[in-house]
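Allow me, if you will, to draw on your knowledge of protein folds for a short while. The matter concerns a single protein, recorded as an amino acid sequence and a row of backbone structure tokens. Kindly check, if you would, that the fold set down in the tokens agrees with what the sequence suggests. You will find the record immediately after this paragraph.
***
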Amino acid sequence: MDGPVNNIMPSRKPINEEDEYRHIQSEDEMGTFSEEEDYLSAGIGEEHHCELLIAAVNAISSHNNHLDYFRMQLSINQVASNSNNIIWIFWDQEFTGTLLDQDEQQMDIELKHVEAGDIFYISIIDAKCKLSMRIPLWENLKLKSTTSTVCWCVIGDFNVITFMGEKIGGIPYQMKKSIDFINMIEECVLIDLGFYGPRYTWSNGIGPGSIVWKRPDMGMANDNWIISFPDTTITQLASAGFGHSPLLMEMHVIQDNVRKYFRFLKCWTTIWGHLSETKEYEQKINIEEEKWVTTNDRSDMTALHELQAHLIKGRKRKNFIHKIKDAEGDWIQGDEAIGEAVCDYFEELFTMPGGHIREDLLNCIPIMITNEDNIELSRDPDMKEFKRVVFSMCPSSAAGLDVMNGKFFQSCWEVIKDDLLKVVLALFLEEDA
């Protein structure tokens, strides 16, 4: 499975700060907007069948007959919308979907794909434009984060930005508008999934002298999502006449039969310290779990979550190459195509044309190694030399076949040193044989 694809289609309304549905009006700037836009961008479903489509549409035209029209056009049976019919969700038989919650600013749906083992939640956001009207949405998301133990993604139009670099043009942005939004992200422990493509997702549509660009549309996810779908990508597509750029989210679930071995991450030693500290955290979590099960008290649950946060604070998204650029400047995508391109590059890099070696030239090289040097170089390493070599390794060095890097060997030296030296000596004996 290449992964279910979430086509996050934009709202026909531009972002604004005063009135949710007024075209291109904000506290900062105004512009013009066309009423002749299509609901969905051309080409959706023409070349590839869309398994999951999320759309935000203009309230003026979001009638049920339009919803049914697009359902039939997309050949998708399952559809749901929120209370004011602004957010639409379409999903086909590849998904099992259950609508969990909805209001005027958001929809929550529980989904499971036939080729993905994990159930996941998606919250689709179409935030109000007035700051005060967005606060109930942030509080709602905070509440969901405390009760969510599954993969959770929050995506859509948040009508606010997280830092000044997400806006260019117009009057300087006032960060006080974003305080509640940023606090919500921190309390929910959400991670920005990043993006490919244009840096900004919305423009006021005014000419070059007064144009304003922002990035109010984004996708964020919790730790469980990052662990289950580490290769999630978001591409910000061209706006194609919409007020907002569509977001294309891809969840690559790679199915393989390779046995997965334990992998040591150097961040564990930073977060946990020594092995005794790790055991201490595990014991504390067990105590808090038993306490919470007995009392079902909210404060106990909070304490449990805080301890669990210590264990996952150093999370790292798995390294995954989504695409590379070749020598001609073209982007290459897909595991097989990327693998072939990398092999070709290094084969060309390390392959040199053959030549004839003149033995008479080698005779000019003096003998630098004495017999004593040979004896010293050939002797078996002792513990002192072995330790010096291990601790001279870069802690973040690339892992070998045992998937352990330098940080592991240095942190666990007292535990593994004797066994490790025996292995090294055995390798020397095998080489001599």
